Structure formats: C-alpha cells, structure tokens
UniProtKB/TrEMBL annotation:
Gene Ontology CC terms, in alphabetical order: plasma membrane
Any GO BP: cell division
Transmembrane segments: 31-53
The protein's name: FtsQ-type POTRA domain-containing protein
C-alpha cells in the first residue's frame, strides 16, 4: 500500500502565507469594526445632544396648567416664566415650582416634562374658609391664616372675618381656626368674626349679641359651653376661658 507523501515545502509555505494574510485581514477588520462602532456611538451622542439642547425636535411648544379654579391658567403660565422655543431639557423645574408657589393662592405646585414638547404645571390651590376684610379689600383666608385674592363669587358665600387694626399672620390663623371649628347651628347665628389679636377673637352674633371667644384653642369645648349660655338672655358671652364662662348685659 502506497504511503501519502507529505506536502511539498512550497505548498506548505503557500498555505501558511494564506493563513497569515487571513489573520491579518481579520485583525484589520476587527479594528475597523471597533472604529466604526466608536464613530457611530459618537455620532449618536452628538445627535442626542443636538436634539436635546439645540434643535426644535424637543423644544417647548406648550405650557399646560391643571388644577386651577381660583387662578386663571394664563396667570400661572406668567408666573412660571417659561417661554416657548427653548429646549425642554433645559427647563429648571424646581425653579418653576418655586415661582408658581410664590402666588398667594397656590399651596403647592408640581412641574414635569411631558415629552416631546410640553411642560405640565399641576397646581394645588389654597382652600378658602373665610372672607377677610383688610382695610377696604376683601380677600380669601385659608385654614393656615394665609390671605390671598379670590373672585367675589368665591368670597361672598364664605363666613366673614373682619380685622381690627393691624393683625399678624398668627392672629389670622387663630381666626381661621375659630371659623372652621364652629358647628353649623352656631355658625348660622354668626354675622362676622372679628380678630383683634391672636388671643382676642370675637363673634358678632345676630340680635346684637357678642361672644368673646379668645384664641382658637379648646374651640370644641367653647362651642359646647356657648350653646348652653345662649339660652340665657345677655348681650355679651365670654367663653375665652371655657371652664369659667361669664355673661353680661
């Protein structure tokens, strides 16, 4: 049986040379692939930066406002201070929230980007509990004693609070606390609440009666005591110290 002869030296050399060229080409292709991927990645980054910051593709086209009743949407938009055409990503949402919350009628605001073109401003307004007269102006008063403008259609039906002289924010908060604590049957007999200081809140009642309420502390107890006192015929009822109430003509 004839034995296979080993390849001649020139044939073996040619095969080794072909393998070497293939390996060198593969290495070159690998390098070019890496270069191409790097260029592609860089291009995508540049395109993303351009789209986010410089193009009109992701620019602010609209500012939407929701949650307003006391305020108009245009009023909130003006306070937000965000114009159209700028990059949506560049809007400082925290700063916009602070500007909107600076409006007296706003309790809190939340600002989010709604891609690709909208900035959404969600507003929580203060809840008015009384209409307070300061000088000649009528404003709304919330439960924290914050005074803010509101339409007459909102303030007219509210319990009336009047101020005597210059009162502090603490005094207004006490007056608001008294208003919200009054039972319905007692509130119906109150013409208005007068606040003179934080410790001196007075109820002007129907039939010319006056109730010295004091501060808003122990208001539930004061209301119970007053309900009993009102059965007596008097002009002034003092429940500022509910444990020792008094009446006088």
């Amino acid at each position: 049986m004839a034995q296979a002869r080993p390849p001649s030296r020139p044939a073996a050399a040619d095969r080794e040379q072909r393998l070497f060229r293939r390996r060198r080409l593969a290495r070159r292709l690998g390098v070019w692939r890496l270069v191409a991927l790097a260029v592609l990645a860089l291009g995508l980054v540049v395109l993303g930066v351009y789209a986010l910051w410089f193009s009109s593709w992701l620019a602010v086209d609209d500012v939407e406002v929701e949650g307003t009743d006391l305020l108009s949407a245009s009023h909130v938009e003006q306070a937000a201070g965000v114009g159209t055409g700028g990059a949506l990503v560049s809007v400082d949402t925290d700063a916009v929230e602070r500007r909107v919350e600076a409006l007296a009628a706003v309790a809190s605001a939340d600002v989010v980007r709604r891609w690709p073109h909208t900035l959404l401003v969600s507003v929580t307004e203060r809840e008015p509990v009384a209409a307070v007269t300061i000088g000649s102006a009528v404003r709304a008063l919330d439960g924290d004693g914050v005074v803010f403008p509101a339409p007459a259609g909102v303030t007219d039906p509210l319990p009336a609070v009047r101020t005597s002289g210059t009162v502090t924010a603490t005094a207004l908060r006490e007056a608001a606390g008294v208003v919200v604590s009054l039972p319905d049957d007692l509130a119906e007999q109150v013409r208005y609440v007068e606040v003179r200081s934080a410790d001196e809140v007075v109820l002007a009642m129907t039939r010319g009666r006056t109730v010295v309420w004091g501060s808003s502390s122990d208001s539930a107890t004061k209301a119970e005591v007053l309900a009993v006192l009102l059965e007596q015929d008097a002009s002034v009822y003092d429940v500022s110290v509910p444990g020792t109430p008094t009446t006088s003509d």
